[in-house]
Amino acid sequence: MYNMHHYKTGFHWMAGILLSVVMGGNALAVDMPEEPGEANLINEDVNIISGLYIREYSLKGDGIVDYKTARQIIFYENNKYWNTVVETKEWPLFYWLDTNRDGIFDHFVDQRVEGNGDYIIPYLPVSEN
């Protein structure tokens, strides 16, 4: 049996990737701030289902979350205290930045997951409608 929804989702996913590759990264590259250190870390979440390790920061250090990153989880295990311990890619796949600090985040993707600012571009999801 042919699953049309699967085909449709696959098509939109491929169209988004193709758009990113065609644009080559450089034309839309964004000047992202460097990832802050532990002193600015507000929250972190290990989401095994999505395969992402998400960290939320306050760039000004005042407790307001205005910068987020998400790294791909490569491996995870529970330690003897049942805490989840993860190994991730070195660089984030996704970034979120709230430049106005109004709670509205712009979403970015690192096309090569290398931390090279030339390939961090706005994430433009393709609608399925």
Tell me what the structure shows.
The structure is a single chain. This protein is α+β, with helices and mostly antiparallel strands. The chain has one domain. Helix content is 16%, strand content 33%. It contains one helix and seven strands; from the N terminus they run H-E-E-E-E-E-E-E. The N terminus is likely disordered.
Fraction in beta strands:
25-35%
Run of helices and strands: HEEEEEEE
The radius of gyration over CA amounts to: 17 Å
Mean pLDDT, as a whole number?
84
How many individual helices?
Answer: 1
- Class from secondary-structure proportions: alpha+beta
Distance between the termini: 23 Å
**Which stretches are low in confidence, meaning pLDDT under 50 for 5 or more residues running?**
1-13
Number of strands: 7
As a percent range, the share of helical residues equals: 10-25%
Largest sheet: 7 strands, antiparallel
Global shape: globular
Count of discrete structural domains: 1
Features:
single chain, 129 residues, alpha+beta, 7-stranded antiparallel sheet, 7 strands, 16% helix, 33% strand
In short:
This protein is of the alpha+beta class. 16% of the residues lie in helices and 33% in strands.
Write the layout of secondary structure elements.
Layout: H1 4-23, E1 41-47, E2 52-57, E3 67-78, E4 84-88, E5 94-97, E6 106-110, E7 120-122
Antiparallel strand pairs: 1-2, 2-3, 3-4, 3-5, 5-6, 6-7
